[in-house]
Amino acid sequence: MSTNDLTISSKKSFKSFLGKVVHNQLFIPLVALLLLVLFNLAADWFLHADTSFFQIVLKPSSTGSKILTGNLITIIDNASELALLAVGMTLVTSAAGGQDISVGATIAIAGSTVLRIVKGYSPDISGGKFAVVIICSFLLCVVVSAAFGAFNGALVAFFKIQPMVATLILFTAGRSIAAWINNNDNISINDERFGYFGNFIPGIAIPTPVFITAICLIIIALVLKFTNLRLYAQSVGINSSSSRLNGINPKIIKLITFIILGICVAVCGFIKVSRTSSITYAVIANNIEMDAILAVALGGNNLGGGKFNMTSSVIGAYVIQFLTTTLFRMKVSSSAISAYKAVVVILLIIMSSPFIRRWLDDRKSRREAARVTKAEAALEAAVEVAGDVAADVTADVNAGKESV
Amino acid sequence: MSVNTNVLGGNKLKLRRRASLSDTNLLLIITCIVFVAMYASAVIFLKKGFLKPQMFFNILNENASLIVLSCGMTLVMITGGIDISVGQVTSLVCMSCAVYLVNYHGSVLGSLLIALGIGLAFGVVQGFLVAYLEFQPFIVTLAGLFFAKGLTTIISSDRVSITKDNCPAFDKLCKTEIVVPFLGSVNKKGIYIPAYVEIGVIVALLVVIILFCVLKWSKLGRNFYAVGGNNQSANMLGINVKLTKFIAHVLCGLCAGIGGYLFFLHAASGSPLHAQGAEMNAIASSIIGGTLLSGGVGNIAGTLVGVLSLSTIKNIVTSLGLEDAWWTNITVGGMLCIFLLVQSIVLARRHRNKK
Amino acid sequence: MEDGAVLEMRGICKFFPGVRALENVDFTLREGEIHALMGENGAGKSTLIKVLTGVYPKDAGTVRINGIDRPIHIKSPQDAQNHGIATVYQEITLCPNLTVAENMYIGRTKGPFTNWFRMNRRALKLLDELDIPVNPKEQLGNCSIAVQQMVAIARAVDMECKVLILDEPTSSLDEQEVQKLFKLMRDLKAKGVGIIFVTHFLEQVYEVCDRITVLRDGKLVGEYVIEDLPRVQLVSKMLGKEFDDMADIKSGADVVVSDLNELPVYEAKNLTGTTGIKPFDFEIRKGEVNGFTGLLGSGRSESVRAIFGADRVAGGIVKMNGKRVRITRPLDAMKHGISYLPEDRKNDGIVGDLSVRDNIILALQVMKGFFRPLSRAQAEAFADEYIKLLNIKTASTDTPIKSLSGGNQQKVILARWLLANPVYLILDEPTRGIDVGTKVEIQKLVLKLAAEGKSVTFISSEIDEMVRTCSRLIVMRDGKVVGELKGNDLNQNKIMATIAGGES
Questions:
Q1: Is residue B186 situated within a structural domain?
Q2: Could you give the CA distance from residue A278 to residue A273 in angstroms, rounded to a whole number?
Q3: Cβ contact (<8 Å) for B140 and A346?
Q4: By the number of CB atoms within 10 A of the CB, which of A362, B42, B172, B343 ranks highest?
């Protein structure tokens, strides 16, 4: 009997463990990542690739210093901006219950601001002076895009406009504002030092955006750990009226999340323009808002607001980049990539569908129902034997049945 | 207890008053007033042809496709959803029809069927995913957007144009002008130039009328509002919420198909760059027309006015001599901003008064 | 199926993940009877009704309905309507953006079109018959809650149903409207309609019902004819224990210590709100329990909201322990040691998706400040302490609060405010919509807190609850304080007279 019990309980605990894993938010993005890895391993095998997808090599770059190259590096490098945006977008989604679709346009504004400052200085200024210029341009771009974030946030928080609609304004006008900042000139910066932030710093083998993103992610993690941002944002997103009566100011919290997103956008804009040392207003960070929202959704977060899992969103961002790079590897043309992406997105989201979850739950309760009916029958038999103990209970029931 | 009765009697008198304006009608009226004011001031201050009926008809000619897309969008938005794939579906429709006509020498009717088929297919699939599998509409239609975009470039990454040579029948169709009687104008040389509209405008206005009637007088239309107002309540009231949402998406898909074909008629070409951002224009038009993204409030007539307002402001900006594309965008953004603020303030006031 | 029955449910089971909401429940409704469905919160009344109306699929059991030989399967609310089952839910389940008439007829007219003219005319006639003062063309969202509830009832009544389910329809109605509803119910009963009536008000049950079915913990306790089941027994059946707790409480009201020499804990002069109440004066002393009373809409909730700073305050002087303070928003009030349990639990109280733990620590956390979060261990310890203290039934501290029953949710909110360690606690309708057992527990708790030296304002729509717990009652009418009762004046008759005004 006891051994029997033991196996049952261990089986049960395994099942409940499995249930926990499946219901964990990290499950979906991690499984997606795993599938992509497996897919690439399989592709290596079937295509008899000369070099593995996962191979990383240290080789000299065009400038002469040694840098790491390989698909994995590309993924981590290229996903930097997306990961940052996913962080800000997750916060906005949680508190405001909607998404900011103006991030791409605001990146253009931020980038344009940076270039406006930097273009005024000739390439031959000294290192120290150059650092001052860069820091000034960066700070200004943070201020500008935080201000645009605050504009969006104010519309959402104070005028109660749905986030998607409120940010539609900047989505429409943002790129034009970016062009207007620089009088629609095509600017390119000749100073190679400006390119360090989007590419490689000589002597360091890892792309700089990776460091920038890592630092930002650490800052965000610290903020979440040492402030109540998480609790406040979630409370506001779930029930703003009740949050208000508990002393939280929902408007300010919403505004703050938009400003944080604005700062993330500023960093992205800075990296973006540094990558190419130039800007094309209509093209820079095109459609990145869709990818950022996708990252949040892929992370299993409810796009209607409320509880969120930041890690999950960030992994979601890397999954999206991984997917893109995988598709490139499969020789899918860059313009057709979105079609494949769509299919994968649908597949991934099916896993998190409330419909599927409920279907599973329903099956579970049916099984339980069947079990209980059996147990009930057994109990009745037991009651007849045990008699007087259960008499009180059955008396009531019988009384009820008699009156029927 | 006698006090109670008095209080209640008072209430009764007070409450059985004339029904106050519904949210939908209130927003519609604001939109119309703003549009009329804007057009009137353009006529008075700019004079650059705004008084000519043809100017107005040109706005219609250029926006026939957008009108239909926006109508579809309004339906979905009334049920509380959104469809951001319509722009790319338009692009896909243009490309498919162009390739079909040019490379496969298909018939015009065939191309029309292709357009409707594509729209319907997108509508059905997205509607199914949203309504029955309960995915978030934004994500589903985002996938739809990606899919349509990719498919368009797979079909052809270059512009495919229809000319008199490669498809004369279609060329004739899209050059057909329908003369509007009495509204022509006399040019400098004193020659009477009749005003005209393209076929697309007729189709678009038909769509507007049909959908207006559907929303106002059909049970289905009222169900759209109910579902958007509160979808759990709608379910309890005995409305098939899933089916209603599904139909809204199918109709929106169909509108995207029709709108796509109208775009094709106007542009007579297919290109991956066609109808870029049309979904956002459609959303903007619906919002300006008084549709709330949260659902349950909106009007097709408002949407029509919304599209017209949007293009009027673009025309005004152009005739002010600010040719650059970025000015148009900034003005449109500003206008959207003003509309949103007005709506927000008006609705907030109403709800405060209610208390 | 037995004779005269219009509805028979046998062996109904319904499970939610981790919860057995209904286990083998039988229920029979006969033609022309009003049948009360009673039970504590979480007993399974709402679940049973939702199974019957097709909102939830049942996991086991059969439902039979008069006129159909085999068991029926109700798939959706629409299906239930087609089978002649009409329902009025506790929460208003109408669409606020549609007109009154539309709300009455949507989802049940034939043909693909809406005939506005006919619909409005029919609606007007019905509204007149039922004496509901509203224009059928009015947008529903612009009407008061009571009118909305009456419209929902009108809709159900018009459906020519065999079974009418009323799930707590009276909670937002005033006495007059309740009487109107009861008259309507008796008329329908005479026509042979079977009515299922769910309510928390025992008096109402004994006023109109013929039969009572009692549920407890998802199981059937029994079905009784009303004459056979005195009130006290009904309560004990619902609670599953003998009922002498009420007696304890009565003695409690005498324990009132107010040292008049001491400064009031809270004192307001000419406090002016922006929600339609007249400026008022108010003070409360240490260890005192006072109450605000008045009819629905008399301004009692608005007054305490003004005290807490929940709505914008326009003016007035507020002193705490003699010192002048400014309270313009909830956070100010919290920092001065005022706690407020709001009237509307679902919309103003709970934060649905957050865990029980986060809901408990929320207020304390906010008071500590944005940059000083509690550690996980601390939070867990606080949550455990209060779950034990208030006997909150929850699977774990991680359970989302929305999956708890109403009474337990209310206890969590109470725990939140007790944890904030207030000197002055405002409880606005803490006992609304929760079961009798928890009601008693809460009243006891209030007295205990007062004995510990806290000041409490207690508001309840049940006057006997107020009489039992409060030592002083402030009576309001039309946004104005019209009287203050204490000592021997504190009895039902006197209170009613003051509420009604000088005429009686």
A1: yes
A2: 6
A3: yes
A4: B343
